[in-house]
Amino acid sequence: MEDTPDGAEVLDPFEIRVLAVLAEKEALTPDNYPLSLNALVNGCNQLSSRDPVMALSEEAVSEVLQRLMQRKYVNGITQAGARVTKYEHRMRIKWSLEQDKLAVLSILMLRGLQTAGEIRTRSGRLHDFKSVADVEHALQFLIDKYPPLVSRLPLAPGTKEPRYGQLLGGEEALAREETAASLGGSVAQGSRVGALEQEVQQLRRQVEDLTAQFAEFRKQFE
Question: Could you tell me which residue, 7 or 59, shows the higher pLDDT?
Answer without folding.
Answer: 59
